[in-house]
TrEMBL record:
InterPro entries: Nitroreductase, Nitroreductase-like, Nitroreductase/BluB
Protein's name in the database: Nitroreductase
A Pfam cross-reference name: Nitroreductase
Taxonomic lineage of the native organism: Bacteria, Bacillati, Actinomycetota, Actinomycetes, Mycobacteriales
Residue stretches making up the Nitroreductase domain: 12-190
Record flagged with keyword Zinc-finger: no
The organism of origin for this protein: Mycolicibacterium celeriflavum (Mycobacterium celeriflavum)
Record keyword Flavoprotein present: yes
Molecular function terms from GO: oxidoreductase activity
The entry's keywords: Flavoprotein, FMN, Oxidoreductase
Amino acid sequence: MDLYSVMRTTAAVREYTGDPLPDDVLERILDNARFAPSGGNRQGNRVIVVRDRQTREALIECAIPGTKRYIAQLRNGESPWNPLSPCRVDAQTIEAVNVPDQSPLRTAEAVLVVCVDLGVVAAFDQHLDRVGLIAGASVYPFVWNILLAARNEGYGGVLTTAAIAEEPRVRELLGIPDNYAVAALLPLGKPVRQLTKLTRRPVAEIATKERFDGSPLRT
C-alpha cells in the first residue's frame, strides 16, 4: 500500500474475524517495525508474543482495575486517569463497575506485549513537575510502526494500556525484569471491518507558526 494510505487508514481495530495471523507474517511485521528510531539508536525494545489463552485471560484480569476506574470517571463526567485532574470517584463506586466481557485481548489472534529497557532511555523530563513523557520517544515510534506494518499486511490492532496500571502483576506473569517498563499491549488480528477514511482535525487546528498562540499553519 501507499505510505500515506496506510497512515490515513490505520484505525483502532478491536474486532477480528478469527482468521489466523501466521508467525511468518508476524515476523515480517516486526522485521519492518524494528526500524523505528530510538534514543541513541539503543534499541531497548522487547516484544513478547502471547497466544496462550490462559495467559491472555490473566492479562485481561490485570486490565480490569484500570478499566473500572476509567469507566467510573467517564460516568462522573471526568477525564479518566488524567494527571492534571485527580479522581473524584470513591473506591467503592469504582469497584462496583461492571467491565464488558468482550476484550480484544481475548479475541485477537495474538497479543504483543511491548516493553522498553529503562536502562537505555534518556528521560530528560524526569525532574519536571509533571507526568513523564520523554522516555516514550524510544518505544512508541516502534509501537506505531507495528500497527502501520500490520495495516499494510491486511491486519489491524489497537494500542491498549489499561493493564499497565497493574504493571507488577504483568511483570510477574510474563517474567519481565524490573528494569523494563511495559509500554503497550497490542492485540492483532484480521479486522471485521476495515475503515478506509478516518476523521481528524485539520492541520490549521493543530499547527501554529512560531508560537503556541501563533497564526494557524495553512496554505
